[in-house]
Structures are given as structure tokens and as C-alpha cells.
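User: Flagellar P-ring protein. Structure?
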Amino acid sequence: MKQIRLSLLFALCLVCSGTGYAQNAQAANSATSSSSAAAPAAGGTRIGDITELRGIRTNQLVGVGILTGLDGKGDGSRSVPIRSSLAVMLGHFGIEVDAQDAAGKNSALVLVTADVPPFASPGDRIDITISALFDAKNVKGGVLLQTPLKSAGGDVYAVAQGKVEHSGESSTVGEIIGGAVMENRVHSDVEGEGGFTLLLERPNYRVAYLIREAIANAYPDLSVSAGDASSVSVTLGEDGDLVRLIGEIQQLRIDLPRPSKVVIDEASGIVVMGGNVQIAPVTVTYRGATIEVGPPGWNSGNSNGFSIEETVSVQKFFEVLQSSGIGTDDIIDILKVIDRAGALYGSLEMM
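Assistant: Predicted structure:
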């Protein structure tokens, strides 16, 4: 068998010591003791970077308003909704106008939406998105009249007003940066039953265990539990300082398991490989040539092809094939077949 050795030609490796992680099929083989696993290693990942607090989230607001100054590109004089809305709006200012006489070609009814970040307070400004509801041709440059923005429960939390300065690919959608002012605070319910819950951004049993152990080791007086792969709950004592404790726990660090995953974007030819992904002994026939992966002597002689005499990583496998003149698209097809054969020690994700 001919052993092929070569330098690195192509590999995009994902080393997961930061924010990304995935289910690790071999986590049980590399598990350490509770004390060492929970140690907040200086080079690990902060718990606050991979979790969020239950009860703290973005809230959505919506409203319907009138956009004016559209220079003849509005809903049009035949639009009953805009004519009626203009008549009602003018009536609030003591100007009595029949809906039939309210021309709407310079105005439009628009939907106004906004995302409210956690802890937004009265007086804070938030961005809003404007989108035409009916026949308006272009909303850019229009002026939004004062529009209340409501939650799903119908309560008003912000008021929007301003000129549409930004528009994207669609002429009927625009934005007003800082176009709404918060009038009421959206309350965040962090504390529940004397504690709080951390939600994992990517549910993973191993990571939930590591977070639980890190908190329990750092704060032995607290009651810490991981109900499932997605959450870790912390119960405080009677005199617990919630703000201080959350801040300190978010700074604790854990060593995340490396992902056993290969992600392929066929459109661009990008292949991202976790450092742990291995290929089991396998034989692949490609256009008359045989590619063998396995220890010396595990299979019959290979006179028309080449061999890699070990259980190889996907990274090295990729390098060997590419150095032999096999294109990226063909290597991707080979990896997909290896995965279907059950010889890929990890998961294959196609984009």
C-alpha cells in the first residue's frame, strides 16, 4: 500500500473553545471528574456567553399609522381606508373634512413594528420599521404621524413619529432609527420561586452538567439543578443578592466539549470540520480508484488507488483527497456517502 503524505492544502477547521458547540457523541469517553470539570478554567468559555436568563427577552410592539408627504406615491384618492383615516385624524385637530373629500395620493396607511430590548425604560428610543399596507408605491421620505405602539395584550408601550430615512431593497419598507420613544417599561420577570434559571442557547446535556457543576463548586450553599439539556436552575437563600450573584455566575468559565460535526455549504463549497470528527475504517470506490481508510493489513491489497493507514480525521481525509486531484464537490459527495454508510464518527449537516 502506498502511504501518501502531504502538506496542508485546504481545511477550514472549527475549534470549539468559544461560543459554538454541538452534541458530542463521544462526550462520555472524555468526561472528567466533577471537581475538575467544574473548575472555572481561565481559558474556558464564560457561562454568560452561552446562556440567557429566563424572563429576559425581546418584546414586540406594533401599530398602524399614517405616513404623509409621499409626493403622489401614496395609497391614492380611491383608497377608502386612507381617506377615512385622514378625516378622523384631521377631526382630532378640529378640522372637519368628509372622507370623500380627503385625497390620499400623498399619504398612506402603514404598519409600524418595533423590537423592544430587555430593560428598555421610559424615555429610551428604539428603532422602528415602516411597511405599506395598501397601494403606496414608495415610503422613503414620508413622515410618520404620531403612532401608538402596542403589545400583544393591547397596552401602549411606545409612541412612534418621524421621517423615513432608510429603506432597503423594497421601496414599500423603510426604517426610522430611534423613531419611537418608550413610554412604559416592559417588566422582565427574572426571579421566580426564590431563584433564577439559565437557559442554554444551544441545549446540550453535557454543557448543562458542566454549568451546574461549576456553579455548585463555586457556591456550595446554593441549590443548583439541571432539569434537562436546556436549563439550569439556581435557588437563592433568604438574603441572596440576586444582581451580584447573577453577575458572578455569568463570569464563571467552563471548558466546552468540541463538536463532532461537519457542516457543508454545497453552494459555496465551504466545509467546516470539528476537530473531533473521525472516519472509521472504510473503503470508497471513486471513478475506478479505491480509497481505503484503516490500519495496515485491515483490508486486501489496493493496487489501483491509495490508502490512509489509520483511523483518520475528516480534516486529514480532505487534505489527502484534494492533494490527489479530487475536487471539493466530489469530496463533499464522498463524505455524504461515508456518512450514510455509518463510517463518520459525528454528524453531517448540509446547508
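Residues 1-41 have pLDDT under 50 and may be disordered. Residues 12-16+259-350 form one domain.
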